[in-house]
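Friendly challenge for the regulars: who can give me the structure tokens for this chain first? No prize, just bragging rights.
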Amino acid sequence: MTTLHARAERDAVCDALTVAGPDAPTLCAGWSAFDLAAHLVLRERRLDAMPGISLKPLAAYTDKVQRSLKAEFGFEGLVHAVRTGPTGVYRVVPGFDELVNTMEFFVHTEDIRRAQPDWVPRESSPELEEVLWRRLRAGARLMLRRAPVAVVLHRIGGHGGHGVALGGPKRAPRVEVTGRAGELLLFCFGRQAHARVDLTGEERAANALRSARLGT
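First reply, four minutes later:
Bragging rights claimed.
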């Protein structure tokens, strides 16, 4: 039987939201935990507003829908809606929830946890680390497309041991980033300051990568 990592990470993000409370800060710039909960519900229940997440011309409508969800559900209602599970295409298409939400919920769980002053690393199962690494290898070039330097990701740990993924411009100073799969994923999602990784390379290039706008 295949482990449903999206289900486990869905529970993890809901638990993190509940513990943090609606006013807690997150790593998503300008968003409280309340805002993040509304974003998660919007993704699954208001597909009409999803394009504005990444397309600036449509962002105003997305923001309006997100505010309306906060007013309609309240914080506890939003968390319950996320925990209850997806609707529509997420539920109808086999495997879609697992494909789309495993990384999303993992990253947003850490967005909540790592914005708190007393956070400690969360232990991920070897199976989840494998899933995250496969997704990262497949999407590394997209996530690192705005990197100002060539990037070599070195994965440590997990069943597969060492692994390598590449991104960024080829003809540029090279920076090597080493860590566990989940930490590398957070780094490539733009959470560089909160990812526990080691960077090796020329200092100026490493600093440029740390401050670059990464992610999808």
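The beta strands are 150-155, 163-167, 174-179, 198-200. Helices lie at 5-20, 33-45, 59-84, 89-92, 96-113, 126-143, 181-188, 203-211. Your move, everyone else.
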